[in-house]
Amino acid sequence: MDRGALRLYFICGSRNAGDRPLHVIEESLKHGVTMFQLREKGANALAGEELFNFALDIKKLCRKYDVPFIINDEPDLAEKVGADGIHLGQDDMDIALLPPYFDDKIIGLSVRDRSELGQSDISKVDYIGTGPVFATGSKDDAGEAIGVEGLENMRRMIGTLPMVAIGGITRENYRECLDYGADGVSLISGIAAAKDTKRAVEGFL
Fold it and tell me: Which residue is catalytic, options 14, 28, 105, 110?
């Protein structure tokens, strides 16, 4: 994959961006987000037909702005909607068990540290997401922050494999992530909760 696609990776679900998530997502795509991931988790999360239709609407927006569309942790949905790829966590489906649909798609994997890297098969992985780099409230299961030193260590261990930083990333600290080896930054609230989506996106670029 083009590692430049990780430069500004926006993650969002139907409950992260107020009452107009599709508007926020389109504004983010229009103004420079380079990859988008649908992560539909938590209380009142969409499911079934509602989730499929929401994902389909996002796919159309991603196609309109030529941005890769990734789905988190739901390979069946990703295949059904025709997404560009899947992102899996350590406790999600084993990458080796993904259906053939994903053979030529983007596969991302969350890898926090040396221990998780040691137990992960990254032979089919196109990029890894590492973090949380800084403390974050966006994900209940994020774990303790690894700091930019954790990013630097991961870069040393994975060589040239594309890597995106995640967790607690703001306009004030995102450059540190790039300086310590990340190809880009991934965030939820830094864009989803912003009053001015255009300004927020441009602030990370």
Answer: 110
**Domain 3-203, CATH:** 3.20.20.70
DSSP structural state of residue 100 = G
Q: What is the DSSP string of 133-156?
A: SS--SS-TT--S--HHHHHHHHHH
Q: What predicted TM-score, i.e. pTM, was given to this entire model? A: 0.95
- The active-site residue, picked from 105, 112, 139, 186, is 139
**Is the confidence at residue 113, as pLDDT, over 60?**
yes
pLDDT tens digits along 21-55: 999 999 999 999 999 999 999 889 999 999 999 99
Q: Is residue 39 flagged as an active site residue? A: yes
- How many Å apart are CA 174 and CA 23, to the nearest integer? 24
Can 139 be counted among the known catalytic residues? yes
> Which position among 39, 59, 105, 112 bears the catalytic label?
39
119 is in an annotated binding site: no
Domain boundaries along the sequence of the chain: 3-203
Reported as a single tens digit per residue, the pLDDT across 137-180 is 655 555 789 999 999 999 999 999 999 999 999 999 999 999 99
The yes-or-no answer on residue 123 being catalytic is no
| Average pLDDT rounded to a whole number, residues 64-89 | 98
Q: Are strands 69-72 and 127-130 parallel, antiparallel or unpaired?
A: unpaired
Rounded CA-CA distance 167/205 in Å is 17
Cα angle 7-176-200, degrees, rounded to a multiple of 5: 55
